[in-house]
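ARCHIVE CARD
Drawer: 12
Card no.: 0347
Subject: one protein chain, sequence and derived structure
Cross-reference: see card 0346
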Amino acid sequence: MNTLTVDLGTRSYPIYIGQALLGKPELLEKYISGQQVMLVSNETVAPLYLQTVLDMLAGFETATVILPDGEQFKNLDTLNTIFSALLENRFNRDCTLIALGGGVVGDITGFAAASYQRGVPFLQIPTTLLAQVDSSVGGKTGVNHPQGKNMIGAFHQPRCVLIDTNTLDTLDDRQLAAGLAEVIKYGLIHDADFFAWLETNMDALKARDKQALGYAIERSCAIKAEIVAADERESGKRALLNLGHTFGHAIETGTGYGTWLHGEAVATGMLMAADLSARHGWLQAEAVQRTEQLLQRAGLPTTPPESMNEEQFRQLMSIDKKVIGGNLRLVLLKNMGEGIITGDFRQELLSETLNMGS
């Protein structure tokens, strides 16, 4: 087992990464406040791992909420089912919530914890690659709105993150590929050497080689922990983690939540960001080609949906958390491994990028 730390002073917390961690209750017990524990999972993950986690919580007063599976259920109605369960079970403000599942479960459970009785503790047990390398770390919680993804939420850090890499054994290939998109992101924005490592090891990652996956998860979490520690509430550097997300969120919203997986939309969004960076002369054509090839090798889409036009993209991108004073800012690339946050891009070049799929 490897342990990383998200350094936030008195609110610092560990990320445990290893195999067969879901049999070690001592990794959870010390982070649970009080005796009441609400375990939140979904219809796909619960049959696989719910009982194992309940066994780890022997001695606590436990209750469970099983959510429907899918991005289309990441909304206020589903959030309310968690609140209802907490109230029906008479959970007090000394309770702890545990998220067992992918990014949707983690985001919605974290938001419930941030809101219930004005804030209670929660723990993350991510079971998808995307959640393990990205959404479980950093304290971003929330739900979607029909007009915009993740527009309703709160910053609420977990007490700990428990990553059992064995849960990836039951992850389907499409979900694995979606997680690889976020892994590739870290190489693009922060670590060119890691990007090169991914080029060498992509076949091993797709084959679920435990050693390769373990290193990819650890390196991704280390980069995110470093960035979050420097900028917890995304006032600056943390926005780099949104490479491809402004384009990607527009794709998810425009095509209907759940049609494209988050990682699939981000993959296409990252290539669009690389394309726009190259059009400005910041990124070499070779780097764009390397990005496209690696995403395709991971099994990810790299072309925007034909159903979306420039006008729809622009409308949806205008509803983005990086819009300040009515001005859209984007995460682009100055070089491989060097992301920037800028509103200084040419609109005619953005138009060319937005039409790259037509």
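Annotation on reverse: The chain has a mean pLDDT of 96. The domain at 2-170 is CATH 3.40.50.1970 (Rossmann fold).
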